[in-house]
Amino acid sequence: MKRFYFLSLVISLVVLITGCENNNNANRDNTNTQSNDQNTQTKISKKTKKNNDTIDLKRRTGIPFQISQATQDTVPLLGIMSNLEKNLAVVQAGIWRGDYQIISEAANAIVNHGYIPNREIQKIKTILGKEGLKNFVAADKNLHNKAKELTQAADDKKMDQIVNRTTELIQRCSSCHVKYRVPLRDNPKWLEP
């Protein structure tokens, strides 16, 4: 199982490196433009630079690495899962870039994801049963705890712990998906209003 997660991290790295190489080839043709732009770059605020880094990362990889902000609102389960996926991708991009701040922000957004609406909680209970719902909630609490540990590791700038916590998060997400996604998604009651 660990090989699968290591392989997924390696594949992510290859995608990022490939994007970087393509970007470097294009930049060799524009050396003069880069020199002129470098003077302008020093005047850009940190926030603008951060946005430019995100835009540049998207241009190199084709993947929009933007944090899906945490919310105290209720969000459909599919929306929560989509945001968790995006934020975990931001964590991985932050690892490759050595950007502790973005890792911390993305991990914190994972900790503070939206709440599942009551109607969906009732569907989960109907499909998985009372014990299944209890285990589903426990898995979510575990995700919160691991994401808090990841946030702390990023704040402490401890890359080895960040990688370990990220791997644990991926393992826990995958385990939860194996256990709950198919029963929920394939049950006709899930599609009922």
UniProtKB/TrEMBL annotation:
GO terms for biological process: electron transport chain. Residues 24-50 are annotated as: Disordered. GO terms for molecular function: electron transfer activity; heme binding; iron ion binding. Keywords: Signal. Residues 24-42 have a biased composition (Low complexity). Residues 1-26 form the signal peptide. This is Cytochrome C. The lineage of its organism: Bacteria, Pseudomonadati, Bacteroidota, Flavobacteriia, Flavobacteriales.
